[in-house]
Amino acid sequence: MAPHGGRGDTAWGGPGPRERLYDASADELEVRRIRHWLVDLAGRWWPGATTGERDAFAIVAAELLANVVRHAPGRVRAALLDAGNGTCVVAVADQNPVGPAQRSAEPGEAESGLGLLLVQELSTAWGWHPVIGGKVVWAHLSMSGGEQMPA
What is the mean pLDDT of residues 81-109? Predict the structure, then answer.
């Protein structure tokens, strides 16, 4: 399915000046397309974002989407919101009602399963909440250099 726009869905973190949604199957190819779409859209909305902000956004989006492929087959819905004041919200909804499990990073531990630690470190806030038919996992990130242009 193609991306589409909308406004003011409070289940995704609240209304903002700009909001875009992408709905697709939760397979690796579609999730890769969603990740590229999110990164491209963030680059257009915040053209003056620092390299660190752009990198953090790309990593957080990739981690949230990777969890869908691993743990929640079915459909995925991704959203990018401009929350104003240099903050964006990236949110991913899936069809698995079980919340994400955060692991601790202990020396010698497995090298996988630590994506939520990256999300926690790179975002200003993150969390999840149940929705009908699954859950939404979201992260707030700082994004400087946004332009006041139509979405």
Answer: 81
